[in-house]
Amino acid sequence: MLMHSADVVILLMLAAFIAGYVDAIAGGGGLITVPALLIAGLPPAETVATNKLQGTFGVAASTLQFWRAGHIDVAALLPAVVSVGIGAAAGSLIVSQLDAAWLADVMPYVLVAVACNFALVPSARFERAGKSGALSAGAVAAVVLVGTYDGFFGPGAGSLYLAALVGIAGLGLVAATATTKLLNLTSNVAALAIFLAWGKIDFSLGLPMAAAQVAGGALGARSALRHGGAIIRPMVVVVSVLLAVRLMLY
Fold this sequence. Notes:
By secondary structure, the protein is an all-alpha fold. It has helices at residues 6-26, 30-39, 44-68, 74-94, 101-120, 123-127, 137-152, 157-167, 173-198, 203-227, 229-249. It is built from 11 helices and no strands.
């Protein structure tokens, strides 16, 4: 494991705090932390694994905030949670066997479509009072596909969860964001278990970043609960477009 200077760790913690805030509202925190870890000198495999560690803590913090506010019905969502966990674990297991390059080519167009959907569809559709609860078979199938993608590749998974929960499950933006956090936490934990087994995580960077992610994730969740669609919708659009551009230039 590499030794890292205090300056590098502090800058990565700052990146993780900002990423946690953004991720709690719209997903896409990896847009900030993955390049930061690469710049710090981590090889790609260690970057992905370490990013998954620190990101999982941030998602856990934001999930807790939404749950405490009464926006997540864990019991009702349990079938979806189990299914997403299985899908994410499968995605993580096959990542070493298949070339993800084709996903990098396809995902920018998917993310642009997500951005257009959130930008152009009338606001009333997103502000409807759907609550977190049991998902239909179609919605479960959609989020399992996203979970498998999250374990296999990952960028934009939060935006895809959100789009599926709004478009297929019919949830309002706050409820969909809350449910997204629980499902994203599930797919992160499943993928993280695989990365832990591989021994590719740099804990000297991952744990300080995780602490910063917790603070950023908790603050971002509070912002989403306070401002609702007024902050969630534009941030989803911006993050989706930036992720698409990043993947096109990757």
